[in-house]
Prior knowledge:
single chain, 85 residues, alpha+beta, Ubiquitin-like (UB roll), 4-stranded antiparallel β-sheet, 4 strands, binds zinc ion
Amino acid sequence: MPPKIVRGKLCPECGGPIHLGRERYSFRGVDLGEFEVYVCGRCGDSSFTPAGSRAIDRAAKAKGVFGIEHEAHAPHMVAHEKARA
Ligand SMILES: [Zn+2]
């Protein structure tokens, strides 16, 4: 399946084209599954889409790991988690 380019949206890091992808996310060591992300076709920077973020909320609540820290769920935090993994 070819990547779906998101029109009218550019990478905040490099201005490259953004397409939709899926990425695994874990919170406090609990794997929550795969969620929809915007991925830059140039630099590979990724961030969760609004729909992806909502799905993470639901998954985290369902698994009982939802916490106040989730508010700090910014793309750079995600990148930090990936760097440690
Ligand atoms: Zn980029």
